[in-house]
Model the fold of this input.
Amino acid sequence: MSDEPKPLPLAVALQYDKQTDRAPRILAKGRGLVAEKILALATENDIVIEANPVLAEALSHVEVDDTIPTELYEAVAAVIGFVLRQSRAVGWKPDEPGAE
Done:
């Protein structure tokens, strides 16, 4: 068994509005209890969660309210595609009023 401490959970929340944003931006981020709270709020609000520790770690270096860096566009686009597919599978339509 390893004596290394278990890494704290990390969560990064993204927001993207195709009408107003030029790229997705960091809405919230945190480790430990803050990460747990972000995940709990997402779950409570039926927000799709994608577990991608490598991408989360990269995004954790971006300041809250900043847009993601161009070198992460492709990875984030894959996550957004996943979220849209999952959301549509449960009947969510992003173009409906109040969908943002």
Summary: Residues 94 and 100 are 7 Å apart (CA to CA).
